[in-house]
Amino acid sequence: MPVPSAIRAAFLIALALPFLTIGAGPKKASADPLVVDLSNHLVAITTGFTGTNVLLFGAVEEEGDVVVTVRGPDQDMVVRKKERKVGIWVNSESARYKNVPAYYASASNRPMDIIASPEVLLDYRIGLQNQRFIGESKLSDDDQKVYREALVRNMQGAGLFGERPAKISFLSNQLFRTDIHFPANTPTGTYTINVYLIRDGRVASVKTTPLVVSKTGISAEVYEFAHRYSALYGIIAVIIAVVAGWVASVVFRKR
Amino acid sequence: MQIYLPIAEISVNIFLILGLGGGVGFLSGLFGVGGGFLITPLLIFYGIPPAVSVATAANQIVASSVSGVFAHWKRGNVDLKMGLVLLAGGIVGSTVGVWVFAWLRSLGQIDLVISLCYVIFLGIIGGMMLFEATRAIFRTRRRGGQIRRSKKHQHSFIHGLPLKMRFYRSGLYISALLPLAVGFFVGMLTALMGVGGGFVMVPAMIYLLGMPTGVVIGTSLFQIIFVTANVTFLQSVQTQTVDVALAILLLIGGVIGAQFGAQFGSRLKAEHLRALLGLLVLSVCLKLLFDLVITPSDLYSVMPGDL
Q: Is the interface score ipTM higher than 0.95?
């Protein structure tokens, strides 16, 4: 049963409070300027998985802006362009990209362009526009741009790239929280979550925390089995079908 | 209720898939067809990746053919020798087909080829069925029914082919190359389209090989079991696109639906059934053709590159 996220947030923030009181104490030099944690470090894709939210919460020692980026595992992607041939739309030219995150989302408490200059955001690779995909094709620069846009647009359409930065809300001057949404088609792998504390347009502190998305339960075992023992899987699939067909013919013959 | 399919890697509505299996099962019981040519496009329309749809449909057809073949076997309606020759062609054809499938997939053209195969075959078969059935309906109305003589003993180039074989059950003495070629072709279709191929094989057996109608269905079902089993196995090994969970859901719906379909079908006239089936096949064909011809909302598509 999903616990209402508000209650969960309150509970987790209560847990985080001791850190804050230490931070607010006189020994400022030794305190951590940024404390972050997740409600869950494992997103389990079970048989009933339809997407989930992970709560990211934390505290800053002194006031500042907070930016969060979530990056899925890198993968190769192929972008294909359709062309009309003899009246039918056919895949024609294609471009291959390396280092494309399988998932990307960001969040900030204020619009990013107010928080930091484009140069700073580029230096830290914050935001979709600052992700570098390495293209493997001989396309012209103009085409390269179109293909890159198509890649981003398609990933956004699939819900795997965030359309725009999500909102980070401050509950006080120091406490913040945000929900990271993972859709039903979330790819598996190890995700990297970076939290940046930005003051006066400069990154004052960065915290990195991993998040693992993995299949668990029956569906994970079936997938594992299908890929590891594919021949045996094929034989079992055939046996299931033969038995099912035989049972059906026996059951319904008697009627 | 949603269920996450382990191989398709998407979550689907369990009742919708059961209903889809049931609906196609109903139609296959009603019309006496395998239904693979309907289940694959419908799965694709629903959003299951085409590769998974084709491979999983092959797995499901194994079951529906097994359940159908018993009755024919008992009545002696299976020409085993003919079935084995067709099968030999089918095994080679489907093995080549799976290989072609993987090759087209790496080129990014598999979706197009699947759609095109469907448009062509559904268009031809549906058009012919509708034409033939409407003619039959008119003929019975006018009561001017004249039965055409069978052309079994007409001689053509076919009878000049070498490697002649005697098929006692079918009462034929023809070149083995012919059923081998038919089996090969249908095996290719099974791998590429996820169909049993009965809708191509049955007319080919009657008109091309000249087999008596009585043994055609049983023999084709016999061949289809092994060819679809071969495709299931090879797709599992080569592309890992057979989704057992999806196949089981389709099976359950299909088996139940087929029983209702068979009962309902006995109340309709044969030519009306064929006309309806022809219309159905043509509408699936038109929908696929429409999707190929209209300008897509996005001209660019994205796929993981390791496929």
A: no
